[in-house]
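[SOLVED] Need 3D model of a two-part complex

Original post:
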Amino acid sequence: MPQLAAWEKVYIQPDKLSDFQATAHGKIPCENCHGGHAELRGANTETNMVYAHDGLIPEPSDPMHVDQACRVCHYSIVENSKSSMHMNLWGEKNFLAKRAGLAQFTSLPKSMDAGYNKDCFKCHTTCGDCHVTRPNAVESGFLDNHMFKKTPDRDLNCTACHGSRVGEEYLGQRSEQRDVHYIPGGMHCVDCHDMTEMHGDGTKYPHRMANQLLPKCEDCHESVSGDNTYHQTHWGELSCSVCHSQQYKSCNSCHAGEGVAEPSYLSFKIGLNPLPDDRSYTFVTVRHIPISENTFRNWGNARLQNYTALPSWKYTTPHNIRRWTTRTTVDSTEACYANCHIDGNKNREYYLLEDSLKAEFPESQYPGEIEANQPVTVDNALPAGWLN
Amino acid sequence: MQNAPRYLWLLVLVFATSFLFVVSCTEETSHVTKQTMDSSCLSCHTDNDALIALAKSDDSGGESSGEG
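Solution:
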């Protein structure tokens, strides 16, 4: 996303000012939320700018100031959001701690904690990041003349952060086709991901998928569970994306402070469900996340002590759903499973198998990968005879 | 009941004082609001020439993309 120039980020078009002032937020004195010195001091000189900005609170909804700003009127939302995934990134923190061999995130050594705050935590969200400006992670800037937007903008807010995977998949920028739910002018992120999910419900979930309020395909599509042979056979056993997603992005490694070490690539892998307590499917789509044993070497952590504690192929819900995919499109002369079940070498590429892992992730180059992903490889869960 | 007229003036006084207090607070608030909205903040933040001139560093032109 192209960034705005410094002046554009804080510019209110004169002809739009009255629109803002007509709103409830536009009637609040600037300094009530932003601090600084608002009284008139004459011309727009640098001296006056420095004086006006003395004690400025650029983002009143940051955790240090949100109680004095947003919470005054939006009490319950702000209170819930304090324990939300968006503001705290619990999943990332918990997984990092587990891979580092620590009981909890707060036990991180100082160097790692500092590195995390510098390189990762900038992606946490505040009220303003979704309702007033673009997120800090993309250098901020007004969405629309300081107007407060009840519904965040899909492109300027949601996919500004969730762009390189979810956004690109959904808009068809990296898949063969865009998501069937995306029709220009059609479904917005918030049509499925509602306010309660975004703001949190006051529960401190250990990771995103532990939240049972997350949308599920079945919320809308339960009625098709017996519509065809595929659904009758596999409903509940396979996550919907096993049949209905296209290829999606995976990354093999990322080094904190440096970025990804290798280019991302398109993948499609069916693995064993690593989260059976949270989702009931047996087989799900899995995506390789950008981590490796030495991801945090720049934080003074040469190697994650317990890297193999969690799979690096992670439960994923690709946002490039189509009714007809390479697995569901079958020639009428073939069996319905011709493009999905393993038969000799046919269709093996769709499954996360031990031998393919060993070939793609040699231990010398990716230490710990094979062991870490044992729980999600499907070798021992496939029907007898498939791998003979 | 015989005392009621005697204390009526007290009741009226309490109501009148409360009314005057609310009115004065409202006027104070609107005064602050108007003063603020006409103040240095908006005189500059609605003036693109001033903002451009005052921007100490131009950090435009970057490209960023979400990670999620």
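Edit: The interface with chain B takes residues 1-8, 10-14, 17, 21, 27-31, 34, 36-41, 44, 46, 48-49, 52, 123, 137-139, 159-167 of chain A (CB under 8 Å).
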